[in-house]
Amino acid sequence: MLILCALFPKFSGLKRITIYIKNMVCQCCLRVIREDLERAGIVVDEISLGKATISFEEDKIGLKDIREVLVNLGSDLVVSRDSQLVEEIKLSIIELVHHMNNVDSMVRKSEYLVEKTGLSYSYLSRIFSNHEQITLEKYIILNKIERIKELIDQDEFTLSEIAYMMDYSSVQYLSSQFKNITGMTVSEYKESDRSSKKPIDKLY
């Protein structure tokens, strides 16, 4: 069942609904999606990562048109409650790993997810694995590796500092996981053209 909240079925000739959107992973997504929806004649009343409240003329625009706009941007509508939860998990992990820079939160990442969703970590892991090609733990690791690449590129921290920030018990553990995921050592990555970096929404 499509997750849509009809707030005001008719208001000044417009239908107003809230839609949930896949693959909204950064602030740039907000601007691009808003612009393309508005270009298609859809009023964007509110928009945040993973969600937008929109208004449109129901006799001229349908969900098919809205979905087409999103699909053309590499996104889509979330079509079930479980899918909505998976998107919420992804956004929480991205926020934690890429934006918070909070060591305490990284250490207690399972508790962080539980607090964000109000659901047990075991349940979140099961739902994630049922809907995605990888486990929740692997998804967290892939995000951490991409964040490590960013921190290396910035050249502001030592590898020991990065290991601490990303909740690795040692540089050796970080290096081992980095090699396992990327196929190259940290030194090899530094000497490369850095083209192995992946967009956050294309990690697997």
Q: Within the CATH hierarchy, at the fold level, what is the topology of the largest domain?
A: Arc Repressor Mutant, subunit A
CATH class of the largest domain: Mainly Alpha
Oligomer: single chain
Total of domains: 2
Tell me about the biggest sheet?
4 strands, antiparallel
Strand adjacency order, main sheet:
1-2-4-3
Number of helices: 10
CATH architecture of the largest domain: Orthogonal Bundle
Shape: elongated
| Helical residue percent band | 40-55%
Word description of this protein:
- The chain is α+β, with helices and mostly antiparallel strands and 204 residues long.
- It has 2 domains: 4-72, Alpha-Beta Plaits (2-Layer Sandwich), CATH 3.30.70; 81-202, Orthogonal Bundle (Arc Repressor Mutant, subunit A), CATH 1.10.10.
- Helix content is 55%, strand content 13%.
- The chain has 10 helices and 4 strands; from the N terminus they run E-E-H-E-E-H-H-H-H-H-H-H-H-H.
- The chain has helices spanning 27-39, 63-72, 81-100, 103-107, 109-117, 121-131, 136-154, 159-165, 171-182, 186-191, and strands spanning 4-11, 14-20, 43-48, 51-56.
- It has a 4-stranded antiparallel sheet with strand order 1-2-4-3, covered by helices on one side.
- Strand 1 (4-11) and strand 2 form a beta hairpin.
- Helix 3 (81-100) crosses helix 5 and helix 3 (81-100) crosses helix 6 (121-131).
- The model is unreliable at 1-11 (pLDDT under 50).
Tags for this model:
204 residues; alpha+beta; Alpha-Beta Plaits; Arc Repressor Mutant, subunit A; 2 domains; 4-stranded antiparallel beta sheet; 10 helices; 4 strands; 55% helix; 13% strand; elongated; disordered N terminus
